[in-house]
Amino acid sequence: MARAENRESVGPAARMAAAVARKTRLKKGLTQDRLGTEMGFTGAAVSAMERLIHPVSDDMLVQLERVLAGGTGIFEEMRELVRLEKLPEQFRGYAPIEQKAVALWLYANHVVHGLFQTESYARALIAGSYPEPTSERAEELVVGRMARKALFERKPVCEIELVLDESVLRRAIGNEEFAREQLLYLAECARRRNVNLQVLPLDAGLGGEYSGDRGDLNIVETPAHDHVTYLEIQGESLLITDRAKVSTHRQRYAKIRAQALDPRRSLGLIEQLAGVRR
């Protein structure tokens, strides 16, 4: 029963990868055991992939490209498609938009924004969520989240602004070691030339204004220089393209940023919480 359920949940990209892998393996005259050995997997793992009992993993696609592709790049091209269909359903429509963005304006007030999470932080956060995912599903989600970081190195560069609520910095996820590692990584990100990172302090509302009260906010400038807003809450998502609404979101973001600490003071606070001595 479980195996049948696994097959039904496998997406079209993973199905295609499994079919191509099997046909190519047979054409080359390789047994599943032999292919597994050359890839660094067991024959049973290859069999499970081909029979859709366990969807092809990112690591397996890398090895399939090395052993079977013969320089064609076919499995490498499938990696992005397979990653995409393994993402949470509500995020799939937004993921390609994020990766092609010219600029991002982000605000997070519950946990560290996914683009800026360390692997340890992401794994603890995902594994501890509700409903609790299986270990296999949790690992798929971690791999997908880490793959988003390719945006930091993309050419042409994406200009990224992130405002984090101070409460996010003080909320440890996993354990204290993971929390410190995450803070140090945020400090590293803050030093990137294409990243502007600011902290909205806990006392931001004392002046009578607090613009961060409506939750997380993601605003994207597309390659066509249009602007869209992405919102996500309780496993549901909303992609907004209406210009008037997006304009309001951009103005609200500007207010949030204006109420935040400047980048230098923000970096200082992050390092202080991480225990960095200057």
Task: Describe, in plain words, how this protein is organized in 3D.
This protein has 278 residues and is an alpha/beta fold. The chain has helices at residues 2-9, 12-27, 32-39, 43-50, 58-68, 74-86, 95-99, 119-127, 135-147, 150-153, 166-170, 176-190, 243-259, 263-274; strands spanning 103-108, 159-165, 195-200, 217-221, 227-233, 236-240. A six-stranded mixed sheet has the order 3-2-1-4-5-6, with helices on both faces. Helix 2 (12-27) runs antiparallel to helix 6, helix 5 (58-68) runs antiparallel to helix 6 (74-86) and helix 8 (119-127) runs antiparallel to helix 9. The N and C termini lie far apart (59 Å). The mean pLDDT is 92.
Q: Briefly, what is this?
A:
With 278 residues, the chain is α/β, with parallel strands linked by helices. The protein has 14 helices and six strands. The longest helix has 17 residues.
List the helices and strands and how they pair.
Blueprint: H1 2-9, H2 12-27, H3 32-39, H4 43-50, H5 58-68, H6 74-86, H7 95-99, E1 103-108, H8 119-127, H9 135-147, H10 150-153, E2 159-165, H11 166-170, H12 176-190, E3 195-200, E4 217-221, E5 227-233, E6 236-240, H13 243-259, H14 263-274
Parallel strand pairs: 1-2, 2-3
Antiparallel strand pairs: 1-4, 4-5, 5-6
